[in-house]
Design brief:
With 1220 residues, this protein is of the alpha+beta class. Helix content is 43%, strand content 28%.
Length: 1220
């Protein structure tokens, strides 16, 4: 046996084609067939209990429930037709009896019915015999059989609700009443019906109402047709005709027909019957001739999720049933939907169209072709050939989303996050977003007729099958990653490995391939051409592949080899799934059963088989936590199984799965809902204000009414008191008179009776005397007898006297007492009624008075408390006003300080501007000096660079002197003296320039001293200015903060307590003892003067800015001119350097000549050498002095650039605004 057990947990779907497929077990529980089970469904608590069908049954034909709601009969078709009776009071719905046709060969039972006492059962067998069986079902005894018809089908059989022996049978051209007598069923009516009767119901012991295919209601009394009527009105008949004409235009083969009465059910007020597509009519009894009047029409509402909402209205009603208390009417349709409505609500909605509601959820109405689950949410996605996609929740057992499309749907895959879905249509596949209330297309892919699709476990890829090709797409880029080609037939199933690195596929060509999703290569294969595979699954470690197909075996494939085979006993496997713990396999079969097989696969045939569906299972999935098994079938049902592991395995279950709660919603929807919420909030606020206003008005009106009523009631109470006094006096008088009358009449009657008594006494004395005389004459022997006789007669006479007197007198006394008693009772009753009436009125008045007093007391208390609050708030307002005046005075003083500070700032701005101008002039001069220094630096550097190589050349040439000629020497000396004179002149000019440079140095030192003084002053002024500006900023920040706090205080103007508290905090925060000054108003003249000066200063600033711009332009022109002069001077210096180099060369040559002619002219050579050396020393000294001077100038300029950073006036500078 398998170590894993599957229990039916919940099912979504209704099995159509079953007669009477919806029944009420009690007020909250219904029974309906779904799959190969009968389901007991609680409407309020949403739980289900299952009654599994019998094994090897081909289909379910009909249901019936007993009158006492205890027994359920299920007719099934198999090798032979059977009826199984279940005991519904047993917890597991225990099977009681299985009834068959016995010796009569019966293939199926088409309809059934229990007797009113639940002891007998009718079963109508199908064609061609159409035999009706009459059982005592508890004894499994056939009481009688009869052939009901020989041609048409039988639609319904039923018992007379008052008689177990009378039976009604209706069908095509059949309406027969049978009565059980003498061990046989005998027909009791002779009606030959030609219409096709689809349903009937017993209204009383003699009356039956039947519905026909043409929309007629036939009423039979004692088996005879009394009258008939149409089930629909003229308008609805014309609408039905229009619909049928439209259908006949669309499909000419379908004949036009009137609304069919497919179901009738009776209840205490009348009956309910179907009246065409999607319509149920209620009929109630009328007082005239036991007729029926149509009262209400209930319709199936249009489906908003469908692409054609009116299609839901075209469903045909197949079954109607009413709850035991006649509160709820439920119905089932030919498209597998269940609806219900509360009859009280249907009767109350007189002016509106009554509509059904779903009994549980909207179900699939055709073959389910796709099934998928996700990892992060408890969701199930299914698609069907009914053009719909449905999203279910297997934790709450509810339908989350539902949408219909125009095309057929073949496959579906749910993203692991539960937020997206891929659906395969006939023309393409679509990637859709699962929103809160809709399924919207996001991306389309051109893959036609996709029968299989699946997301990878990571969700970053999905595979889609197109014939024999598998396409793999990226979920992020939507690009095609791989196209896996290799199958020769259609691919029927695919499965991803746990790490998404491999994909396994199987197809109709008998091939099972394992693909590498990274490279697209086929890594392993197993081909068996004699088998067409329909399902494939992977083990958790991806080492083994399990496949099922058309050869009725389960195969385990490992390393391209079939490792094991499990034969299924000639049952075709359609799909397969494996638990994530790897402990068990589940297979779905073509007969709708589910088999649980232990893994590793057993050598023998060991499995557990469960009854699941009534058609082949198409898909099967195990949830990621191994809690549930999900199966879908061609019967349109989704079945959820609870998985239980007997051996305690299943590591997945040890960790509780926590599901995500996030959802998708578009921005437009969110904004729309937020807008609606805002509108609703504003509407609520408006309604609150309106209600408060109305309540105030009502309070005022009620107070006025209370005053009026109190005055009125006080007047009525006074009048009632006076009336009560008058009536009490009258009553006392009537009592006295009645007593007197009673005494007088009683005395008269007593006197008469006394006189009669006296007469009788005299008569008795006389008789006694006569008898005494006679006794004396008699003998002694007769004395005793005479005495006895006399005593006897005396006793009799006494009795007669007493009876005569007492009878009359007591009769009269009794009559009088009775009369007086009745009069007293009447008067007492009247008095009591009057007293009770007025006491009740008085009590009511007292209660109302007390209530009004209490209310007035409460109102007085409220008024006094409100008055006190008003007084307190007035006092607080006065205090606040005083504090406000103080604060205003304080603000005015602060503003005055601000004005003074602003004046100081303006003065400091003026001084700063003057100093800025002075600094700007000094800087301009400094820039000129820097330019001159730059020219000198450049000259010195150039001279250095040229002197040093020349000196080196002179040293080298001294050693390479050749003997010059005398003539050349003389010429050289002549030229040399001329050049020397020219150089001396230039040197004089250079010395003059040096003097000018010394003057510049002196001026520069004076300027430096001036700049230093100005810097000190500027620094002090800056410090003062920054201090004043910081003070102004602090004051402005304080004022702004005070304004903000004061504005916040004004927000509490309607709440005195909060206003008081905020003013107190404001006072404590901003007012100090030292700041308490008297209020001084700001003079308007001061403000006017301030604004005038401000305008004047702004104009000055604007004119200075323009002047600055002009001066900058002039300065730029001067700068350009100086740069040109500098360039000219640099050129002249370069020329001088070249001439100096030539002179040096000539001097060198001259020295050489002097050395050669030393003997001839020693004195002149010595003078020349001395002169040359003097000139060289003088030049070196000048160069050295220039270098020192340039170095000093460079240092001074660097120091000035570090210390002197004069601020230039900004174009955006504005004076601060005056804040009031």
């Amino acid at each position: 046996m398998a170590a894993v057990v599957a229990q039916s947990h919940h099912i979504f779907g209704l099995r159509t084609g079953v007669r009477n497929n919806l029944l009420f077990f009690d007020e909250q529980t219904v029974i309906f067939p779904s799959g190969n089970n009968c389901v007991r469904y609680n409407i309020d608590q949403k739980w289900q209990r299952f009654i599994p069908g019998t094994e090897r049954s081909h289909s379910m034909q009909a249901l019936a429930i007993s009158a006492n709601r205890r027994y359920l009969a299920v007719a099934e078709r198999g090798e032979k037709g059977t009826i199984t009776v279940y005991d519904l009071q047993h917890e597991q719905s225990r099977k009681r009896k299985v009834l068959t046709g016995g010796e009569v060969a019966v293939q199926e039972f088409v309809c059934m019915a229990f007797s009113p006492d639940s002891k007998y059962l009718l079963g109508q067998a199908g064609g061609p015999e159409w035999t009706l069986f009459y059982w005592v079902w508890e004894k499994h005894k056939v009481m009688a059989t009869v052939k009901t018809t020989s041609t048409g089908p039988i639609s319904q059989v039923s018992f007379n609700p008052q008689d177990n022996t009378q039976i009604c049978v209706s069908g095509n051209g059949v309406f027969k009443l049978f009565r059980y007598a003498e061990g046989a069923l005998k027909q009791s009516n002779a009606v030959k019906e030609t219409q096709n009767i689809l349903s009937h119901a017993w209204m009383s012991e003699e009356r039956v109402i039947a519905g026909t295919e043409t929309g007629r209601l036939l009423v039979f009394e004692s088996g005879d047709l009394r009258w008939e009527m149409s089930v629909t009105s003229k308008a609805s008949t014309q609408e039905a005709e229009r619909r049928t004409e439209k259908k006949s235009e669309d499909a000419p083969s379908v004949p036009a027909s009137l609304p069919r009465v497919t179901a009738i059910t009776a209840y205490s007020k009348g009956f309910a019957c179907s009246a065409g597509p999607g319509t149920v009519c209620l009929f109630e009894k009328t007082e005239e001739k036991d007729n029926y009047r149509r009262t209400r029409e209930i319709k199936i509402p249009p489906d908003p999720c469908s692409n054609e909402p009116s299609q839901a209205e075209q469903q045909e009603i197949t079954t109607l049933c009413i709850s035991p208390s006649e509160e709820t009417l439920a119905t089932s349709t030919d498209r597998g939907q269940l609806y219900h409505i509360t009859l009280s609500s249907a009767e109350m909605s007189k002016g509106e169209q009554a509509q059904f509601e779903f009994l549980s959820h909207s179900f699939h109405s055709s073959v389910i072709t796709g099934l998928s689950i996700c990892m992060r949410k408890p969701l199930i996605a299914t698609c069907s050939l009914d053009h719909s996609v449905r999203i279910w929740n297997f934790e709450t057992n509810a339908l989350e989303l539902y949408k219909e499309f125009q095309e057929e749907l073949y496959s579906v895959a749910l993203h692991p996050s539960g937020l997206f879905i891929v659906v395969g249509f006939s023309d393409k596949i679509r990637l859709m977003n699962l929103l809160t209330d809709d399924i919207r297309t996001f991306k389309e892919f051109t893959v036609r007729g996709c029968r299989e699709c699946a997301f990878s476990h990571g969700g970053h890829m999905f595979a889609a099958v197109n014939g024999n090709v598998i396409h793999i797409y990226s979920t992020t880029t939507f690009n095609s990653i791989l196209n896996l080609k290799g199958h020769n037939g259609k691919v029927r199933s695919i499965a991803w490995s746990a790490d998404d690195s491999h994909l396994v596929s199987c197809g109709m060509d008998g091939a099972v391939y394992e693909w590498n999703t990274l490279s697209g290569k086929r890594e392993s294969e197993s081909v068996l051409k004699s088998c067409s595979y329909t399902g494939v699954a992977l083990s958790p470690e991806t080492k083994s592949i399990f496949a099922v197909g058309s050869d009725c075996t389960l195969k385990e494939i490992h390393d391209c080899q079939i490792l094991r085979e499990v034969v299924s006993d000639d049952v075709l496997y359609t799909t397969i799934a494996m638990t994530h713990s790897g402990r068990a396999l589940f297979t779905g079969t073509a007969i709708g059963t589910v088999r649980a097989i232990k893994y590793p696969l057993p050598l023998q045939k060991e499995w557990t088989e469960y009854q699941a569906h009534s058609a082949p299972i198409t898909k099967m999935v195990v949830t990621f936590d191994d809690q549930y098994l999900l199966t879908v079938s061609e019967d349109g049902c989704l079945l959820i199984w609870k998985i239980i592991d007997k051996e305690g395995w299943g590591l997945k279950r040890d960790k509780e799965m926590t599901y995500a709660e996030e959802i998708l919603i578009t921005k437009s929807d969110l904004e729309e809902k937020n807008q609606i919420m805002l509108e609703l909030k504003t509407r609520v606020e408006e309604l609150k204000m309106e209600n408060e206003y109305q309540l105030r008005l009502k309070d005022m009106t009620y107070n006025e009414k209370i005053k009026d009523l109190t005055e009125k009631f006080t007047q009525q109470m006074e009048s009632l008191r006076t009336e009560n006094k008058v009536r009490t006096t009258l009553n006392s008088q009537t009592v006295v008179t009645t007593e007197q009358l009673f005494k007088s009449t009683n005395n008269q009657k007593l006197m008469l009776e006394y006189e009669k008594h006296q007469e009788l006494q005299l008569k008795s004395q006389q008789m006694q005397e006569s008898y005494e005389e006679k006794l004396r004459q008699l003998e002694d022997s007769k004395v005793r007898a005479l005495e006895e006789i006399t005593q006897f007669y005396e006793a009799k006479i006494q009795e007669k006297v007493l009876t005569l007197g007492q009878d009359e007198s007591w009769q009269q006394v009794r009559e009088f007492e009775e009369m007086t008693k009745q009069m007293e009772e009447d008067t007492d009753r009247e008095l009591q009624d009057i007293r009770v009436k007025y006491e009740r009125k008085l009590r009511e008045e007292k209660e109302t008075n007390l209530r009004l007093k209490g209310e007035t007391g409460v109102m007085k208390k409220k008024f006094s408390s409100l008055q006190r609050e008003i007084d307190d708030r007035n006092v607080e307002i006065e205090k606040l006003k005083v504090e406000q005046q103080k604060l205003l005075a304080f603000i005015k003083s602060l503003e005055k300080d601000i004005l003074g500070l602003k004046r100081g700032i303006q003065e400091s701005h003026l001084t700063i501007q003057d100093k800025d101008k002075l600094i700007y002039d000094l800087k301009k001069k400094n820039q000129e000096l820097e330019k001159f220094k730059f020219v000198l630096d450049y000259t010195v550097k150039d001279l250095k660079s040229k002197i040093e190589p020349r000196e080196n050349d002179i040293k080298e040439l001294k050693g390479q002197i050749q003997e010059p000629s005398q003539r050349l020497t003389s010429l050289m000396l002549a030229d040399t003296f001329q050049n020397m004179e020219r150089r001396v002149k230039k040197y004089a000019v250079f010395r003059q320039m040096e003097g000018e440079l010394d003057q510049f140095h002196k001026k520069n030192t004076q300027l430096e001293l001036t700049i230093a003084n100005l810097k000190l002053k500027l620094k002090a002024t800056d410090k003062e200015m920054h201090k004043e500006m910081q003070r102004v900023r602090d004051v402005e920040a304080l004022v702004q903060k005070f304004k903000t706090d004061l504005h916040n205080c004004v927000g509490f103007i309607q709440e005195p307590k909060k206003l008081k508290e905020s003013i107190r905090n404001l006072y404590e925060r901003y007012v100090q003892q030292s700041d308490m000054v008297g209020g001084v108003g700001v003079d308007t003249d001061i403000q006017r003067e301030y604004s005038r000066q401000r305008e004047h200063l702004e104009k000055n600033v604007a004119s200075l800015k323009k002047k600055l711009a002009n001066e900058t332009e002039v300065h730029q022109a001067v700068k350009v001119k100086m740069m040109k002069e500098n360039v000219f001077l640099i050129k002249e210096i370069n020329d001088l350097r070249k001439e100096l180099m030539v002179v040096r060369a000539q001097v060198h040559d001259y020295e050489i000549q002097v050395g050669l002619n030393k003997k001839n002219k020693p004195k002149s050579n010595r003078d020349i050498r001395r002169t040359a050396t003097r000139l060289e020393e003088e030049a070196e000294r000048i160069i050295q002095l220039q270098r020192l001077e340039l170095q000093r100038l460079r240092q001074e300029v660097q120091g000035q650039s570090r210390t002197l950073t004069p601020p230039t006036p900004s174009a955006s500078t504005k004076l601060p605004a005056l804040t009031a």
